[in-house]
């Protein structure tokens, strides 16, 4: 048995066209409202990057 995830037959020139589409979405994505936790982490990331930028430029 091979240690590789895919065989040459799966990815080479003679590969099967019937192989499953790994990245296909089973159902469409629909927009929703962001949760408070997600908003908090995005704001924390933005503030961290702004602080680091100001610190590197010597303003803060």
TrEMBL record:
Residues 2-55 form the DUF7312 domain. Signal peptide: none annotated. It holds the Pfam family DUF7312. It comes from the Archaea. The chain crosses the membrane at residues 39-59. Residues 9-19 have a biased composition (Acidic residues). Residues 1-32 are annotated as: Disordered. Keywords: Membrane, Transmembrane, Transmembrane helix. This is DUF7312 domain-containing protein. It comes from Haladaptatus paucihalophilus DX253.
């Amino acid at each position: 048995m091979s240690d590789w995830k895919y065989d040459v037959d799966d990815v080479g020139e003679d590969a099967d066209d019937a192989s499953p589409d790994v990245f296909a979405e089973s159902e469409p994505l629909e927009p929703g409202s962001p949760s408070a936790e997600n908003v908090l982490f995005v704001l924390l990331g933005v503030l961290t990057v702004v602080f680091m930028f100001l610190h590197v430029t010597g303003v803060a």
